[in-house]
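Handout, section B. The chain below has 205 residues.
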Amino acid sequence: MTEPSVNKIHRDGTADLLKGLAVLFMIQVHIMEQFATPDACNSIIGKISLFLGGPPCAPVFLAVMGYFLASSSKPMIYFLKRGLLLFLGGILLNTARSVNLMVRIMSGEVNLDPWPFILGADILTLAGLSLILTGVLRLVFKNKFWVYFLCAITVAAISPMLNQAGSPGKITMYAMAFLRGPAEWSYFPLFPWFSYVLAGYAFRL
């Protein structure tokens, strides 16, 4: 007798390839920035490396993320739990890679505010917030692709205005860095980067 067939997950090879390349480019550019000498960074290979890990990398990663989210049949609770896990994981990673600096700050060797290094708005915190917000939008708009497309345009359009908003208090400033710029530690705020997730989501629909 033949064994019963096992349900297989059908993946999109092109989307998987793009996501994988984006992840590799992100890793290599961080290695270049942390360990390469100035001469290496300014060489032809260094400039290509920094470019591949720069302008085309994060938008592709986020758009593919949105593409796969549109294919998911997971409930809202999954988006909430997964989003919180990614967000907290981003904070934990910020803390782990800043341990040496934290020790130097506490010993008085350097005089810096530690919170921008711990609460930096990076790609993982952005992914977490994007997951949660996408889960909410799915409840409201279902599979109306044109709504997600308009949302992507709207997020991109209003982001410059949000960045020019008044200066909040210090505690609020750290929270707002995850939502909008232009704080120095706000590398990937929700506005405007969430627009790429929405664009990928709309494209899949």
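Note. Residues 1-7 have pLDDT under 50 and may be disordered. Compare this with the example in section A.
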